[in-house]
Each structure stands twice: as C-alpha cells, then as structure tokens.
C-alpha cells in the first residue's frame, strides 16, 4: 500500500493505492558452444502494475504493462591467423509490449510488437601488441514494427506497422600508448 498526498480525498481512498505496486519477472538465458560455433537464446517477461494513476488514469484502479523480449543468436568466431580473427553472426529477436490503462469512462489498451533478424560480419586484426583494428558490417531487417491503441474492437485509435531495414559499417582502432 502506497500513500500519495496529491490524491488524498474521500473519492480516492484517501491517497492510498492498495495492492497496485506489483511486479513479476521471469527470464532465462542459455548458451552452447562447440569449437568456433556458439548458439545463444534468451527470453524475459515482466509485468509491472502501475500505482501512480499516470497519464490521467483512475487512482487506485489497476493499470499495468507487460513486456517480453527474446532472441536466438548463432555465431562463428574463428582465428584466421596469430594476429587476426573474424566473426559471422546470424540473429533473430522478438519484442512485445502490452499496456492496460484504466480511465473513468473506458479502458485504453495499447500494444507494440517487433520482430527482426539479420547478420553481422566482423574482422579483428592485432596490428601490434598495443594496437587492435576492428571493422565490420551489420544488416538488420524489421518486418514487424507495430503499434496499436484502442478503446474497443470497433474504436481503434491507431494501428500501424512500420517495417524498416538498418545497415551499418564500422571501423575502430584501439591503441595503447603505454603497457599499463
């Protein structure tokens, strides 16, 4: 039970939000490696109850958000020589958000879902004992990037999908002028 002085009135339970500051969390991570290959997987889920009547919702009435995120990642990391290595990585990721907001005259759920996958290539070259050069390329495709908000199935406020692709090229040089 939490007390909020700005809601201290008879109509708002004298500013006390009862049993509304909960949080539940679940997650796992697993990784398996053999020789130069590595497979990793991750998933997490979180529900957060909101006690503060944010965005004009009704005080002391349940509003909450759910978030879930997961990925699977396969990489091949190989030493090409004594001074160089390269890495190839393929990945898939998922994100989902669901919100439920209680207003005095209606409820306003919203939702966002994302799926993306891609690949990366990275090359590392140890030019000397004090100098490492890294370069790479990554491409990610997001076929699902949705947001939806509604008051009822027949009263949708917003519903859109915005797929996109990102690509990047990077270079980095790490130089240590002194040994320590």
What's the structural blueprint in terms of helices and strands?
Elements: E1 2-3, E2 16-17, E3 23-34, E4 37-49, E5 64-79, E6 84-102, E7 107-128, E8 131-152, E9 155-161, E10 164-175
Key attributes of the depicted protein:
8-stranded antiparallel beta sheet; two-stranded antiparallel ribbon; mainly beta
Could you characterize what this model shows?
The protein has no helices and ten strands. The chain has strands at 2-3, 16-17, 23-34, 37-49, 64-79, 84-102, 107-128, 131-152, 155-161, 164-175. The strands form two sheets. Strands 3, 4, 5, 6, 7, 8, 9 and 10 form an eight-stranded antiparallel sheet that branches. The chain has a two-stranded antiparallel sheet with strand order 1-2. Strand 5 and strand 6 form a beta hairpin. It starts with a strand and ends in a 5-residue tail after the last strand.
Low-confidence stretches: none
Sheet with the most strands, sense and barrel status: 8 strands, antiparallel
Q: Could you estimate the helical fraction of the residues in percent?
A: under 10%
What spatial form do the alpha-carbon principal axes imply? elongated
Determine Rg (CA atoms, Å). 24 Å
What's the number of extended β-strand segments?
A: 10
The ordered string of helix (H) and strand (E) elements is: EEEEEEEEEE
Residue fraction in strands: over 45%
**Which structural class matches the secondary elements?**
mainly beta
């Amino acid at each position: 039970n939490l007390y909020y002085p700005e809601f201290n009135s008879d109509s708002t339970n004298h500013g006390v939000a009862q049993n509304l500051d909960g949080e539940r969390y679940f997650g796992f991570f697993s990784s398996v490696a053999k020789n130069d290959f590595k497979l990793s997987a991750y998933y997490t889920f979180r529900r957060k109850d909101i006690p503060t009547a944010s965005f004009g919702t009704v005080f002391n009435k349940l509003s909450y958000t759910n978030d879930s995120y997961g990925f699977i990642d396969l990489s091949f990391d190989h030493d090409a020589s004594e001074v160089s290595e390269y890495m190839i990585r393929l990945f898939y990721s998922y994100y989902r958000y669901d919100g439920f907001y209680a207003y005095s005259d209606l409820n306003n759920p919203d939702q966002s879902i994302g799926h993306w996958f891609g690949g990366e290539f990275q090359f590392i070259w140890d030019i000397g004992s004090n100098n490492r050069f890294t370069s790479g390329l990554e491409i990610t495709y997001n076929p699902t990037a949705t947001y939806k908000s509604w008051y009822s199935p027949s009263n949708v406020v917003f519903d859109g999908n915005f797929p996109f692709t990102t690509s990047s090229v990077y270079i980095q040089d790490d130089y240590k002028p002194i040994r320590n």
